[in-house]
Amino acid sequence: MARITTLVLVLLGVLVLHTERAVAWGYQGHEVVGAIADALIADNANAKKQVRDVLNGPLPPEAEIKLQKELRVWRELTLREAGPWPDCVKAVVHHDGNRFKYEVDPEHPEYETPCIPFNSAFERARMEDYAKRNWTSCSYVTGGVERGCHNTFHFTDVAIQRKDYALGEAGTNDHDLVAAVNACIAVLMDRPAPGPFSIRDKKEALLLLVHFIGDLHQPLHVGAVYLDREGTRVDPDATAHPYDAATETAGGNLIWDENVNLHAEWDDIPFDIGRKANRDLLNAARAVPATGAPMEDWARLWATASLKAAQDAFEGLTFAPSVAPIPPKWTVTLPDRAAYLQRADAVKRQQLAKAGARLAQILNTIWPRN
Ligand SMILES: [Zn+2]
């Protein structure tokens, strides 16, 4: 009995940790989106210079640079390396007394892989400072635990029944993913970030923007399925079906498909892509039509497009309450698993290309060709 209990606790611990960290494209996806944009702005000398200056300034103290060079960790940041930054911030732990400390998880050293560019006292201090400024400015409670405001910036939860993203619908708010993208753009345009966002400077804004444009193109970061206690879909915006918080799916993080949660299944990018932008992705990105309308409408329009991709992602899926009391909470049945995963693979390639192209469109608009 004790052994079983211990095993269950260990498994639950793993699941909870996995759930907490698996809240974005895998870091590879974020690096690829940044890499596509690096390539697409290469012919705009103004944007290229501004991105380089913003990401690499203000420089750390002289002694820190010397130390980093000795340790061979000194490097110039690109959009590709910037992509995972807001997920690296998740390693900042909130302690009693309002103390925030970046802590490497000894159980998961692999989480550090994309965070190596920020593995210095100077950059870790920046992450701690950002987490502290964006912890209590809004509340984000899941499983009875306060996760910190900044962890909500990565997603919005529009019901898949909606046709468009519109602020005010269930799952949207002034600190969701769409608001976060617009806050980053504001700072890069020399305007203050609207509350509740605290964005210290353009470097922080750009580190956030690269990541959030990636998240905005992951369908399950935008469209959500809402269920009743039996696992039947409900419409949280319809008064006849008020949303029951006890049935939350956490963007698919609490929905399990065999051994992986549905959210993580969508976060993973096709293995062959790796961590860079390949020729196919660059060609696809260059073919993405520019979005019309004023720039302040882009995040909303792109969220609407991702919502449609989420509607496809949930098409034909059925859900049932899981037997386990806490995560996994739901199980999903895919009508044809192989076909579903194959289609998801193709959608992911399109979405990565779109994200990279749109990030470049923002940067080319903020810093146009001279
Ligand atoms: Zn994210």
Provide a descriptive summary of the structure in words:
- It is a single chain.
- This protein is an alpha/beta fold and 370 residues long.
- The chain has a single domain (2-366), classed as P1 Nuclease (Orthogonal Bundle).
- It is 44% helix and 8% strand.
- The chain contains 13 helices and ten strands.
- The protein has helices spanning 2-21, 27-40, 45-55, 62-70, 79-82, 85-88, 121-133, 177-188, 202-216, 262-267, 279-286, 298-314, 337-366; strands at 92-95, 99-102, 141-142, 145-146, 158-159, 223-224, 255-257, 260-261, 318-321, 330-333.
- The strands form four sheets. It has a four-stranded mixed beta sheet with strand order 8-7-10-9. A two-stranded antiparallel sheet has the order 1-2.
- A hairpin with an 8-residue loop joins strand 9 (318-321) and strand 10.
- Helix 9 (202-216) packs antiparallel against helix 13 (337-366).
- The protein is globular and about 60 Å long.
- Residues 1-24 have low confidence and may be disordered.
- The structure holds zinc ion.
- Zinc ion binds at residues 23-24, 86-87, 154, 211, 215.
